Every structure is written in structure tokens, then in C-alpha cells.
Fold:
Amino acid sequence: MKFILDNIFLIGIALISGGALLFPLLQNRGAKVSQLQATQYMNQGKTLVLDVRDAAEFAEGHLPNAKNIPLAELNNRLKEIEKSKNTVVITVCAKGMRSATATALLTKAGFAQVFSLEGGTEAWKTQGMPIIK
Structure:
């Protein structure tokens, strides 16, 4: 007991840092899909590839047949993609963080099959997959 009282500050720091490391794992960000799985979905057809980067990033290069709706505008523009509620939707951003947020948002909005592309467009390019400019 004396040890705990003498080191309460260090124990507190250890607990807080451990919680900070676990926080990203506990957040519900939706399902992810690899580049291979995304390609398979895209080849099957009736898949919406939704790029949630801003217009300038989108213009630098994007996945084939991707639709661009920036994450900041997604809530207000859901009607544009409503017809895809029952199809596969793959959200894409630069590294996979914004697309994970978009996946959670679309799932709450009632979209049936929503996935975030692991690693985003950077991982897509690294794998030598096609980019449209």
C-alpha cells in the first residue's frame, strides 16, 4: 500500500498513457477492405467508390470511377449517393483516417455494406494499382 501511495503520480501516468494507446482501437470506425478486396468488389460492378478527400487532392489522382464528396460536405450531400444504400460502398481518402470516419457516418445513415480502403490512395499507389488524373 505504501508503494502505491508513494508512486501514485507514476501509476496515474501509466494508466492514462495506456488508455491513450487503447482509445483508437476502441473507436468504432467501420469495416476495412484491402486493395485486393476493393478491386474484387469493383470488378463485380455496382460498387460506389466514394473519395472523401477535398477537390484539390482528388484532382491529383483518384481511383477509377470514384465519386468525390469531401468529408466535410458528406452529411449535406447524402442524397447524391442514396441510390447506393443497398450496394457496396468503398470510402477512400489519402491514408484511411477520413474514410474510416465516412464509413461510420454512412453506416449510421443506413448504408448496408460500407468499407474503408486500408491505407487509402497512398497504399493503393504503393501496390501499383491504377490512378486516374
About this structure: The two ends are 64 Å apart (CA to CA). Helices lie at 2-6, 8-26, 35-44, 55-60, 97-108, 120-126. The longest strand covers residues 47-51.
